[in-house]
Specification:
six-stranded antiparallel β-barrel, about 50% strand, about 10% helix, nine-stranded antiparallel sheet
Length: about 220
């Protein structure tokens, strides 16, 4: 199964190695611009360049990616790999030419269905404090946990923390959890890149879902999701 041209989807570059947390390394909206067959049984998908933080840096050829979209049968994921970057120009009504930035992704496996609960997470940048003296911003938030960049050294895996996520229009969320992993951030050596699994996703789920629904609504209003 391949996504249809003009389908809205989400692109992840890399994927969390921890199946329990269900968080992608990055997961942002995009759109399918073209699908082509390069060899019998081998396909490429052309997508609008995802707007990642630091997306001026093009991934290396072969970097693993994941495409996620909603098909008639439900949510599906398709493994792929970065192939090349394309820059083009197209005419627009009244505003002159527009620059198109696109990625070719080579399909590397079969599409597989995913459970909606496992899928439901969003890339979100919100202020967060993990514990006394450890603060920064979230990069992904899901029903089961969050990923964040914090100033300072990595935390020990297994450490109990109580992330406090700051919200602009309501009381901050307090989400007790445990550090699954924490490493020095690749692009910010003075920061730690950490994944936290929530202690009790069932009891915390309603508050997290409200936050994620609000973000999904904002993306739809922008025409991105």
């Amino acid at each position: 199964m391949l996504p249809e041209i003009n389908s809205l989807l989400r692109v992840a570059v890399g994927r969390s190695a921890d199946p329990v947390d269900g968080l992608r390394a990055s997961d942002v909206p995009s759109r399918v611009e073209d699908v082509e067959s390069v060899l019998p049984g081998r396909h490429r998908v052309l997508v609008a360049t995802p707007r990642f933080a630091g997306d001026v840096e093009t991934p290396d050829v072969g970097t693993a990616c994941t495409l996620t979209w909603t098909a008639r049968t439900g949510i599906v994921e398709l493994p792929a790999a970065f192939d090349s970057r394309v820059v083009g120009v197209t005419a627009t009504a009244g505003d002159g030419p527009a620059v198109l930035r696109l990625w070719w992704l080579v399909v590397t496996g079969d599409a597989v269905p995913v459970q909606r609960r496992d899928y439901f997470r969003c890339p979100l940048a919100l202020p967060v404090t993990l514990t006394t003296g450890v603060s920064g911003r979230t990069t992904d938030v899901g029903e089961g946990g969050l990923r964040c960049l914090t100033v300072g050294a990595p935390l020990d895996a297994g450490r109990l923390v109580e992330p406090v996520v700051g919200l602009a229009d309501s009381t901050p969320l307090r989400l007790p959890g445990v550090v699954l992993r924490s490493n020095q951030a690749a692009r910010a050596p003075d920061h730690a890149d950490s994944v936290v699994r929530f202690e009790d996703p069932e009891s915390q789920g309603d508050a997290v879902r409200r936050l994620l629904f609000a973000e999904q609504l904002r993306l739809r209003r922008l025409g991105l999701g």
